[in-house]
Amino acid sequence: MKQRTLGNSLSVSAIGLGCMGMSEFYGSHDDVASIATIHRALDLGCNFLDTADMYGPFRNEELVGRAIRGRRDEVVLATKFGNMRGDDGAFLGISGKPSYVREACDASLRRLGVDYIDLYYQHRVDRTTPIEDTVGAMADLVRAGKVRHLGLSEAAPQTIRRAHAVHPITALQTEYSLWSRDPEDEILPVVRELGIGFVAYSPIGRGFLSGRFKTIDDLEPTDYRRLSPRFQGDNFERNLDLVRRIEELARVKGVTPAQLAIAWILSRGNDIVPIPGSRSIGHLEENIAAAEIELTADDLARIDEVAPKGVAAGERYPSASMAAVNA
Predict the structure, then answer these.
(1) How far apart are CA 46 and CA 293, in angstroms?
(2) Annotated active-site residue in 55, 100, 176, 201
(3) The pTM is what?
């Protein structure tokens, strides 16, 4: 597996593995299959694992912890704090208070069964706590040896600048894909100016760009994507037209639509690392193979024609969740 560098010093596999769906949000899950998928990822050199305390809630960190037991030195481990949830799954708000930062980190270390976290993100920005206070507490974790590198997720350009002035930010994680190109306007220029790496989550559009979903009934009844604006009503049909065009480009290239979507993200710069989610070894191997795909200038031009900025129908989250992004 090829390597890329986030920030100035964190070397990770060019494609990471998003673990969220192994525990929640995307319907049923199978811990045995998920652990086997993580093991296969490590065997293939995909060493960048992404989780968060809220996934499960809490169970995903425990799952990842079990999977990497005995293989910690092979893993670049990323997790997140900030989205508070109760044991019953209830969402309790967002916190960046210094005391909560410390408590959340200690809890994640216990669940993961590790002594340190390679990359610790603030999952969502707490608009009621100055970012300087939050990042100051995160920096204390670095000094204590509990965390190696700091990250932010879905932060606005000015927030990124203020955070980076307190302690170097190694990576910003934000949604980025052929149907979510918003970061190109302001976010990518700012992180590149500051020398911050970019981690692209949902690079396959929450699976939509893979072409696997032809009707809403292809999603399990408990799948949260049923609540996503891009998966609903007329938006679904309009976005399905986009997927058909991507499928045709992929067919001509001799790759799958998911591979084309990941290869496009990789082509956007060596400072960008996509973290597609996979719950099976088959999908994992398909995604990882995208690292070997070379897109020509003609390929990229055709992709731009099919998927320009703003092409997706619908917001990427329901309105309540959209209020927490670009904060």
Answers:
(1) 16
(2) 55
(3) 0.97
